[in-house]
Amino acid sequence: MSGTLYLCATPIGNLGDITLRVLETLKSVGLILAEDTRVTRKLLNHYEIQTPLRSFHAHNEKQREAEVLERLQNGEDLALVSDAGLPLISDPGAGLVRVVQDAGLQVTCLPGASAPPMALVLSGMAPIPYCFVGFLPRQQKARQTLLKNYQNRAETLVFFESPHRLVNTLEDIYTQLGDREATVCRELTKFYEDARRGTFPALAE
């Protein structure tokens, strides 16, 4: 009997935000594929989980596919985790899921913490409909070009952005999308969690 690939949600900040089912699975699988083994090791140490870790990121995803398929075909269960939240959401793994499914093997997802829906419900803005865009390009020209595609979209748009690029991104969104209401969420689930709603110019300031 073949094994199962478990896509496991991990905390986005507070280590208490992990489900019992994920903890049980991380203890029982033969191997955990982790975006950054150092980050995942802290989580495993906190819960005294001794399961072996193997790195799985954008630069070695294709190289890991054959090993994953072989282990699953031999009946071993595996878990895939990202540094925070649900795997595949702005993180590697989509290609692996397709390869495993195409091979006729079992994939299942264990839900849990995820930053986009949490930010959405904290925003005070309409949660439905919404569009999750993810990270915008780092280069301003590419960022502005992508944003133009959303000029006529009426739903709530959800973006990821790093703190040091936030002001420039807010200014670019304002330039491309116009005067809309917006919310900036940071440090979700952590001590300094914050959600600030206002206009783009006010938030940038």
Describe the structure.
The structure is a single chain. The chain has 205 residues and is of the alpha/beta class. The protein is built from 8 helices and 9 strands. It has helices spanning 20-28, 37-46, 61-73, 94-102, 115-122, 140-148, 166-177, 200-204; strands at 4-8, 31-34, 53-55, 78-81, 106-110, 130-135, 156-160, 181-186, 194-199. Strands 3-2-4-1-5 form a 5-stranded parallel β-sheet, sandwiched between helices. α6 (140-148) links the parallel β6 (130-135) and β7 (156-160). α3 (61-73) runs parallel beside α4 (94-102) and α6 packs parallel to α7 (166-177). It starts with a strand and ends with a helix. The model has no long low-confidence stretch (mean pLDDT 96).
> Number of helical runs?
8
Rg is: 19 Å
* Average residue pLDDT: 96
SSE order, one letter for each helix or strand = EHEHEHEHEHEHEHEEH
* Adjacency order of strands in the biggest sheet: 3-2-4-1-5
Number of strands: 9
Which segments are poorly predicted (pLDDT under 50) over 5 or more consecutive residues?
none
Portion of residues in beta strands equals 15-25%
Largest sheet: 5 strands, parallel
Shape: elongated
Short description:
37% of the residues lie in helices and 21% in strands.
Set out the fold topology.
Blueprint lengths: L3 E5 L11 H9 L2 E4 L2 H10 L6 E3 L5 H13 L4 E4 L12 H9 L3 E5 L4 H8 L7 E6 L4 H9 L7 E5 L5 H12 L3 E6 L7 E6 H5 L1
Parallel strand pairs: 1-4, 1-5, 2-3, 2-4, 6-7
Antiparallel strand pairs: 8-9
